[in-house]
Design goal:
single chain, 19 strands, globular
């Protein structure tokens, strides 16, 4: 049974107070036992005497009325002001004159049956004659009165029943009239993760590659224009760049064959194309405007689970990340995030709370575990900044390859001090390259790039790669204990 008190039946209602228990028992005994007739036990056991009112005896009364107990079961007890019962009247209907002693009756008028009924005394000092005594004449009026009361009770029952039914109908009607949730009630406010995801999911795709005997894999990507171009990571499609198949799975489950438009190992980016022009592209935001602590959303297909959404914040900026090895080595001036990123998220978008792409998810930090060379997400994910992704994608679509800015120096990776050491050999500085023109010499230690400290060779490389060809930058070098600022214009790598 429910604990709601409104659903408890009257018989189930707890009776916590002793007086309620006692009274309830009295009522039950009164309604289940027959009303005793007048006699020796009427004084102590009659229903009316139990509640303080004497019950008339059965049989003829002084007023000529047959005192059937049934009449008093539904009849009206004498309702006189002051709470006293009147003395029995004489057959002629006249009242006793003057004051009468308590319990007295008119001389020779009361029968022995009536005399056996105990009467309550009138109030002290109140003349009995003040209350009219019943006479023989009111029998008809009393019968009419009883009939009227019965009719009134019946009418009240009917009216109450109708009113109760109307009320019940209204309650039931009001319950049935409760509105069902209509369209749009689950809409989320603009700027919420749910609202953003609902808008961007149709533009995020799952990329499946099949390299034949070399195996297959899964990655992510997203639509960048209305011509069917999709941006992803190079390492997602590198295995099938020359031989194999690429299949793009759209958010609605439809699949399309894809071809490689262009890819770049150094930036770990690639552009694919499908024969669809009806897809909505995502907007590339300005990654140079984001700050640490900004909320972000990652969307992709980690471990093959497409349309997966995770969220977090930007944990750090300008993280030098160099994933891969040998010819597959990439240099990323990365955005670090704690949004959960796992294998399969590669190539998917990292979004801000306006729904714009601020990065392309590309790498994660891993902790080697027993029996395995890697583990899953540990809260350290890295994304290629959208500013870099935009420039590279434009170049790949236009020419099929990307250009890389250089300064023209060889760095000593064995150096363990602060900064990036230019090798102390004759050919360490490329002739007529930006560094040579600016005055960089072998043995110089580059300690700042555009005013930001440089601590490792990789940090210098990714800082340079994050810029565009033709930009002018300032390097601060340390030479013979002195710091020198050198200005130079970045040029494209002639070998790329």
């Amino acid at each position: 049974m429910s604990d709601d008190p409104t659903e408890r039946r009257p018989s189930d209602a707890p009776l916590d107070r002793p007086e309620e228990v006692e009274q309830t028992g009295a009522i039950e005994r009164a309604t289940t036992q027959p009303i005793p007739r007048a006699g020796a036990d009427s004084e102590d056991h009659g229903w009316f005497s139990r509640f303080g009112s004497p019950r008339p005896a059965d049989g003829p009364r002084a007023d000529g009325h047959t005192g059937s107990p049934a009449d008093y079961r539904v009849g009206v007890p004498y309702a006189y002001p002051g709470g006293a019962m009147p003395p029995p009247g004489d057959p002629s209907g006249s009242a006793s004159s003057g004051s009468a002693p308590s319990g007295s009756a008119s001389s020779g008028a009361a029968s022995s049956a009536a005399a056996s009924v105990p009467l309550l005394p009138p109030p002290t000092g109140s003349p009995v004659a003040a209350y009219p005594a019943p006479t023989g004449a009111p029998r008809r009026r009393r019968g009419l009165l009883v009939t009227g009361v019965v009719a009134l009770c019946l009418a009240s029952g009917v009216v109450g029943g109708v009113a109760g039914q109307v009320l019940e109908d209204r309650v039931v009607s009001s319950i049935r009239a409760l509105p069902e949730p209509g369209p749009g009630v689950t809409d989320r406010p603009a700027g919420s993760v749910a609202n953003i995801v609902a808008r961007v999911l149709p533009s995020v795709v799952t990329i499946k590659v099949d390299a034949g005997p070399e195996g297959s894999g899964t990655g992510s990507g997203f639509v960048i224009d209305d011509r069917g171009h999709i941006l992803t990571n190079n390492h997602v499609v590198a295995a099938v760049a020359s031989n194999g198949s690429i299949e793009v799975v759209l958010s609605n489950g439809e699949t399309e064959k894809a071809t490689v438009v262009g890819r770049d190992v150094s930036y770990d980016l690639a552009v694919l194309r499908i024969k669809r022009t009806d897809l909505t592209p995502l907007r590339l935001g300005a990654s140079n405007k984001v700050v640490v602590g900004d909320a972000v959303i990652a969307v992709g297909a980690p471990l093959g689970l497409d349309q997966t959404v995770t969220s977090g914040i930007i944990s750090a900026l300008d993280r030098p990340v160099a994933p891969g090895a040998g010819d597959d080595l990439s240099f990323i001036n990365a955005i670090q995030t704690d949004a959960a990123i796992n294998p399969g998220n590669s190539g998917g978008p990292l979004l801000d709370l306006s729904g714009q792409v601020i990065g392309v998810n590309s790498a994660i930090a891993r902790v080697p575990s027993a029996g395995s060379s890697s583990s899953g997400n540990i809260g350290l994910g890295f994304a290629i900044p959208s500013d870099q992704a935009r420039r590279t994608a434009d170049q790949l679509i236009a020419t099929g390859k990307a250009t890389h800015p250089i300064i023209g120096v060889l760095l000593d990776r064995r150096y363990s001090g602060e900064g990036a050491l230019v090798q102390d050999v004759s050919d360490a500085v490329t002739p007529n390259a930006p560094a040579d023109k600016a005055g960089v010499e072998p043995g110089d230690v580059i300690i700042r790039f555009e005013g930001k400290p440089i601590r490792t060779p990789d940090q210098l490389i990714v800082s340079i790669r994050s810029r565009a060809v033709g930009e002018t930058v300032t390097l601060t070098v340390e030479r013979d204990g002195k710091q020198i600022d050198l200005r130079m214009t970045l040029e494209a790598d002639p070998e790329k």
